[in-house]
Amino acid sequence: MMSKRITDLSEMTPVEDAARRVLALRLEAVRDRIADALSSGDDRRQHVHALRVASRRAAAAVEVFEHCLPKKVFKELRRQLRLIRRAVGMARDWDVVLARLGKGFKHADPADQPAYDMLTGYALAHRVPAQKRLEQACPEYPFGFDRLMATSLAAIRRRPAGPATFGGYVRPMLAGMVDGFNSLCDRDDGEWGQLHEVRIAGKRLRYSLELVRDCFGESLDATLAPALANLQETLGTVNDSFNAAGLLREILGGLEHCHGAVGERYRGLVERQLAEHEGLMRTGREEYRRWLQQWRSTATQQALLAVHPEMPLWGTLPLGRTA
């Protein structure tokens, strides 16, 4: 199991040493999980999910240490991780759909079984090529990825004019992430596009804070880490339902256009599942607003000050604006 925490780092650790340790651990996690995701077995779905998480953590670490890498190395590393993340993300999305269909089929009314068969076939027709795209995103594995790791780690340097210590390097960067994340939260319009932006920004902040949990005190573990984990769980469920609802609308529209008479056989289940996902999305939006109240609490804002000492407390200035 991949360790979320990066140990042995302090604010005074030389920035190039911090970069080597963090990138080595995060890239090794991706390399090891590629092997699991490419293997056959009943637990492949869990391995695909683990690779998706590992690739996101690695991408966040690469973004943090961009200024310690030559531009060419940084771009190639980011490109390769993006290829893996997109390929594994597609596979994971269809795994979620198939798991939900499989669970529903066990208790399905006989009249709905043809619709379950149709939806399962549709999902499999996308999941099978998704596995091939994942294989193509990892050429010459494991040696290709090992070369990428070795080249990237050997290229790490501290810029002469840049901060010498990890704390001096990372603190202003995290402050900018906090400001950007809080500005998104402050919009609070509840639209799906905005919630997606909050989800992505929260994930990036969460994975970046994991790198400094030994630097900035226990408040990160006690307050910020669980708060951001709860956000990801809430908005992850919303995102899954948003994607599933889009798929179901696409299928329903296709059935009406191509096979109207035949489509009536499947319409009932598709419409009920669509309504269920829309209900989950509404529930998730309300849960997000409750989460936002907690995020705006004094305890959370005080914890954020460990990372961003210049941040105004909620209510003194508009969030995302410094004094």
Number of helices: 10
Give helix and strand order, one letter per element, not per position.
HHHHHHHHHH
Q: Find the count of extended strands (DSSP E, 2+ residues).
A: 0
Largest sheet: none
State the shape. globular
Strand content: under 5%
Structure description:
The chain is mainly alpha-helical. The chain has two domains: 13-164, CHAD domain (Alpha solenoid); 165-317. The chain has ten helices and no strands. Helix 2 (44-64) runs antiparallel to helix 3 (71-105) and helix 4 (113-136) crosses helix 9 (260-295). Residues 314-323 have low confidence and may be disordered.
Write the layout of secondary structure elements.
Layout: H1 15-38, H2 44-64, H3 71-105, H4 113-136, H5 143-154, H6 166-187, H7 192-209, H8 219-258, H9 260-295, H10 298-304
Helix pairs in contact: 1-2, 1-5, 2-3, 2-7, 3-4, 4-9, 6-7, 7-8, 8-9, 8-10
In a nutshell, what does this entry contain?
The chain is mainly alpha-helical and 323 residues long.
Question: Keywords, please?
Answer:
single chain; 323 residues; mainly alpha; CHAD domain; 2 domains; 10 helices; 0% strand; globular; disordered C terminus
